[in-house]
Design brief:
Structural class of chain A: alpha+beta
Order of helices and strands of chain B: EEHHHHHHHHHHHH
Helix content of chain B: 55-70%
Oligomer: heterotrimer
Chains: A alpha+beta, B mainly alpha, C mainly alpha
Largest interface: B-C, 99 and 107 residues
Strand content of chain A: 5-15%
Strand content of chain B: under 5%
Distance between the termini of chain B: 20 Å
Distance between the termini of chain A: 82 Å
């Protein structure tokens, strides 16, 4: 303990000095960093939308119109972002006075970013949103109806597929897609051959789907799946399949025309469809959830013979599993034909006013033009949203795109008042039967009641505003 | 009688009775067996992660721990087609500055809270501790308000500022300072040593391992922090590693992007292990410098 | 001596001047936002709209009528009651084992620390792979003659598997804290006890454990706060399912705020969570510190 015992003069003052020196150095570091970054940071515009405004208002562009900048937000997906950059360049060449600034967010955190940035007043003029989120965004007053002179209701309804009307709220369209997607049946042709089935004859009806799935299923000696006949993942596409395909196919309807009542419980169709979906796992035992983590992975790796998937899966399938032999067929039908359609739509926010609103409208017109929709099919692989573009022979005859496009005319896009909760409730109902052995009828009744409550709450709020 | 020698951190058994020798050998042996078993469990998911990053994209989902064929392509892609190097640099800058600042304030305030009595101490301690109790998720909206007002959005400082002083660090240092035996301080006081001398010559050497630990924990915590940098950063060139990796995930949940994320995660661990090894030496040296023999 | 600058005054000036900036910082960065949460908790606020409507206690009554929120509370209790003791016991065991060995100590310490530095998202994905119905865990169960389990798909098993993943990730931290604590115990104490004839267990109980007490208090409190705020693993392994059996309070708050944009409800839930954490921490501080006067 010798060291400790040595005497030091009484120096609280020295300590104080030390603290202040340390303090100053920390402050210095902080200031250096602050100075260093604000240079590079603010250069790119303070936050989203920070760069627009006063600076732009003064100048005139080559075409004599005042310069205007609009902010456009979409999620990060390389093919989309790349194409969008090209499209923006094309658009700006046509309208030299307009600058479009694209900002991208990670897909999984899209809503988080939006939720954090908007209350601070940093919002875009135009935003790309999943159709299921639109009612929520519209209800909060964040979006404005598309300007009627450019997008009249009659014209939109004449040109676009009918399901795009899920973007129509309170009689106005609030958003329009460039491209759409539908669900179809993906099937592995090699596994079909292995099971001695004809890959040219995919199942076309409910009963055939069950039969084929049974024939395709392979299990090991422990009764464990080796190959699922039919990939069964309720939290992926199957809940869409239920709402927009199965219920309609069984002769039912998802919601009433005024969008206030859930109609699954009104006829036998809802329960029949619910039971049909569940029986794949419970009665026929041709597939189970989370096999190879999810349906798409199981299909990709050749461990699921059939899967209900969207056209948006094509790109990933080609990239991740170039050797997989698969084909596409329309979703198997029952009493009627139906499938689900979904889309990401461009909406104009309340931030866009005056010149910005005009510019945003021009940009949206451009994004929904025939030319852009065709570029979109080729580069991104999504389907055109306008009838006359989609139904061209070159697309309908396409071996891969064809089945998706053929279904467009009878596709439905459910009106979600709350996309997340409606999905959660559906999965909960499925799990109640699957894991807790609750009778189908009871789980289904609960599902209808809970979903109806969402609608009641939504409309109660809407009605109060009027 | 078993006697533990006091050299550094090792224990040497001096033994006369053979039974006890065998007993302690068995114990030591058991010790290693248990540690090895645990190590396998700890490493398994990590090894799997590395293995995945070396598999061809088509093989991603095969259940092999050791890939049948190996490719470095994902590493090439990670550094070639993403700005990973840039992200790593940003992560490093943010984590390093935060670490310096947090350990400075942690040590200082921790010492004051542990070894001084003054009016309002309990209250101040409770306030500091209570700031740990709100989930970050709920703070980001007010923080963003603040940053937007002050023009800190999309800058290093914007990422840094909520973390430059950490209640965790203060609390941790306070607890370690508490465990510095009062006897030692009293002995030093009786010897006539000043408060500053006590801090510098008695306390600091004793808590050096704790400071090193705090440095490690702070650096790692900031290297991996996700939600706040995600919100505050806008420019691609200012992203940190976790946020950059999040940009790779997609609606399609395709395996090629997943493999890149895995590869990025695997690579991002390496500098952390290096930091750990460096500070680990610090911890050991801290013991050696206690001068307690 | 200048009476204005007596040693005692100087000490006070020093203490408060050191505390000033940290306190200002915490007030601005943590306490103000927290007060803001209290404020928002009494309002209905859709994040996308600018209007906040005063609704009084409505958010609170709505929360306690909400089955999912109640479930998230009880799940969070499980996270804390299983996770904290589990992580502490395992962490202390590893630290003691490591403290005893000489060879390969650095290697082992590094290995046990690696999980702590690995990306939670990437690792959660690996866990999902290991725990899927046809994954390696079920393969092993079948090979030892046990029926395959639902694992993450089971409303009874999933939460414990998530906790296991959290412990796996957090144990390196726990080990490091305990190891540092053990290393800080002055050798002479242990030596003295040895000379007095105390065996290893006695030395542990009577010397190490009491001297580790502040570190234990720290671990219990930080561990409780951590597990009370369980989020990332839950989000990435199960997203709260199946049947809400793994949803934690923070995950639910997050969903309310960022998926449903309902900041009023989310803030009210935060206030409730904050209350629980504060209560628990104060209780722990009281209980654990009292024991110190042995």
């Amino acid at each position: 303990m010798k060291k400790i015992l040595c005497k030091t003069e009484d120096v609280p003052t020295k300590f104080v000095k030390f603290v202040w020196v340390a303090w100053l150095s920390v402050l210095l570091i902080v200031l250096t960093v602050l100075g260093g970054c604000s240079g590079s940071g603010t250069g790119g515009g303070v936050g989203v939308g920070g760069s627009k405004g006063a600076g732009d208002a003064g100048g005139l562009a080559a075409n004599g119109k005042p310069k205007v900048t609009i902010d456009y937000w979409q999620y990060q997906f390389p093919a989309k972002v790349e194409l969008m950059n090209k499209l923006i360049a094309q658009f700006q060449a046509r309208h030299p006075h307009i600058t479009v600034k694209q900002t991208n967010f990670p897909y999984d955190q899209f809503n988080e970013k939006v939720a954090a940035l908007i209350p601070a007043g940093k919002g875009p003029d135009m935003i790309n949103l999943y159709y299921g989120w639109l009612p929520k965004y519209v209800a909060s007053g964040y979006l404005q109806p598309l300007p009627a002179q450019s997008f009249s209701v009659e014209q939109v309804e004449k040109e676009f597929f009918p399901f795009v009307s899920s973007a129509k709220l309170n009689g106005n369209y609030y958003a329009l897609p460039t491209a759409v997607r539908t669900l179809a049946l993906f099937y592995n042709t090699d596994l079909f051959k292995q099971a001695k089935l004809d890959p040219k004859q995919p199942p076309a009806t409910w009963a055939e789907l069950v039969d084929t799935a049974k024939k395709l299923t392979v299990k090991d000696t422990n009764g464990q799946f080796v190959i699922e006949g039919f990939a069964w993942q309720p939290n992926a596409q199957l809940h869409h399949w239920y709402r927009d395909a199965l219920v309609h196919q069984a002769g039912g309807q998802d919601i009433s025309d005024d969008r206030r009542r859930v109609l699954w419980g009104e006829t036998e169709a809802g329960l029949e469809a619910f039971k049909y979906l569940l029986d794949f796992a419970i009665v026929h035992k041709v597939g189970i959830n989370n096999f190879y983590t999810d349906d798409i992975t199981a299909f990709k790796t050749g461990h699921a013979a059939m899967n209900i998937g969207g056209s948006f899966h094509l790109a990933a399938l080609r990239k991740d599993a170039p050797n997989l032999k698969f084909a596409i067929a329309p979703v198997p039908a029952y009493k009627e034909k139906a499938t689900q359609a979904s889309f990401w739509a461009n909406a104009i926010t309340k931030n866009a006013q005056g010149a910005e609103l005009e510019a945003a409208a021009l940009f949206l017109e451009f994004l929904t033009s025939k030319d852009v929709q065709e570029q979109w099919v080729e580069k991104v692989g999504e389907l055109p949203a306008k009838k006359d573009v989609a139904l061209q022979q070159k697309y309908v005859q396409d071996e891969i795109l064809g089945p998706f496009i053929q279904q467009l005319s009878y596709a439905n896009a459910h009106f979600f008042v709350d996309e997340k909760l409606e999905r959660d409730y559906f999965i909960e109902a499925v799990d109640l039967v699957l894991l807790k052995g609750v009778p189908y009828e009871e789980a289904f009744k609960q599902l209808v009641e809970k979903t109806q409550k969402l609608y009641d709450d939504y409309w109660a709020k809407q009605d109060k505003k009027k | 009688m078993v006697k533990y020698a006091a050299r550094g951190d090792r224990s040497i058994v001096e033994e006369t009775r053979p039974v006890a020798v065998i007993g302690s050998r068995i114990l030591t042996w058991l010790n290693y067996v248990m540690l090895t078993g645990g190590a396998v469990v700890m490493l398994f998911p990590f090894v799997w992660m590395i293995a995945t990053s070396l598999k061809y994209t088509e093989d991603t989902f095969t259940l092999q721990l050791i890939p049948s064929r190996v490719t470095w392509q994902h590493y090439v892609d990670l550094f070639g087609s993403t700005a990973f190097g840039n992200w790593a640099l940003n992560s490093f800058i943010v984590a390093a500055i935060t670490t310096v600042s947090v350990s400075f304030f942690g040590t200082l305030v921790g010492y004051i809270l542990a070894k001084f009595t003054f009016a309002g101490k309990a209250f101040i301690f409770t306030v500091i501790l209570s700031t740990l109790m709100i989930p970050t998720e709920m703070l980001i909206i007010p923080w963003y308000f603040m940053s937007a007002q002050l023009g800190w959005v999309d800058s290093y400082w914007g990422v840094l500022f909520p973390g430059v002083i950490s209640a965790f660090g203060i609390f941790m240092m306070k607890q370690f300072m508490d465990s510095v035996p009062q006897d030692l301080l009293d002995a030093a006081r009786i010897d006539g040593m000043g408060e500053w001398g006590i801090f510098q010559r008695v306390v600091l050497p004793l808590v050096r391992p704790a400071i090193a630990t705090l440095c490690i924990l702070t650096f790692l915590g900031n290297w991996n922090s996700f939600i706040w940098p995600l919100i505050i950063i806008q420019s691609p060139e200012l992203l940190t590693i976790p946020v950059g990796l999040a940009f790779l995930s997609s609606e399609l949940k395709d395996s090629s992007s997943w493999v890149l994320i895995m590869t990025g995660a695997a690579v991002s661990v390496l500098p952390l292990i290096a930091v750990f090894l460096v500070f680990q030496k610090q911890i050991v040296r801290g013991i050696a410098m206690t001068g307690m023999k | 001596m200048n009476p204005w600058f007596s040693v005692k005054k100087q000490k006070y000036v020093f203490i408060y001047s050191c505390l000033l900036i940290p306190l200002l910082f915490f007030a601005a960065i943590r306490l103000l936002p927290m007060l803001y949460s209290f404020y928002v908790g009494f309002h209905e606020w859709d994040l996308l709209s600018s209007e906040q409507t005063l609704v009084g206690m409505d958010n609170y009554t709505a929360l306690f009528k909400d089955d999912v929120f109640v479930q998230s509370l009880s799940n969070t209790a499980v996270y804390v009651l299983v996770g904290v003791p589990g992580q502490m016991a395992l962490g202390l065991t590893i630290a003691l084992l490591l403290h005893r060995i000489i060879r390969w100590r650095t290697l082992f310490r590094t290995i046990y620390f690696i999980p702590f530095v690995t990306s939670v998202v990437a690792v959660s994905w690996v866990f999902r792979w290991m725990l899927m119905p046809n994954g390696i865990v079920n393969h092993m169960l079948i090979s030892i003659g046990v029926d395959p389990q639902l694992l993450l798909g089971s409303p009874t098993q999933a939460i414990y598997l998530v906790i296991a993943a959290m412990i796996w990730q957090g144990i390196g931290f726990q080990m490091l804290i305990f190891l540092t604590g053990l290393q800080q115990i002055p050798r002479m104490y242990v030596d003295a006890a040895s000379i007095d004839g105390a065996n290893a267990w006695q030395r542990f109980v009577h010397i190490s454990l009491p001297l580790l007490r502040p570190v234990l208090v720290f671990s219990v409190i930080i561990g409780s706060i951590d597990y009370l705020q369980s989020f990332t693993q839950v989000m990435n392994m199960t997203t709260g399912g199946p049947l809400n059996s793994t949803i934690s309070v923070v995950l639910y708050i997050y969903e309310l705020a960022f998926k449903q944009f309902n900041l009023g409800l989310a803030s009210a839930a935060t206030v409730i969570l904050f209350g629980f954490i504060l209560l628990l921490s104060l209780l722990q501080l009281k209980l654990l510190n009292r024991k110190m006067d042995y």
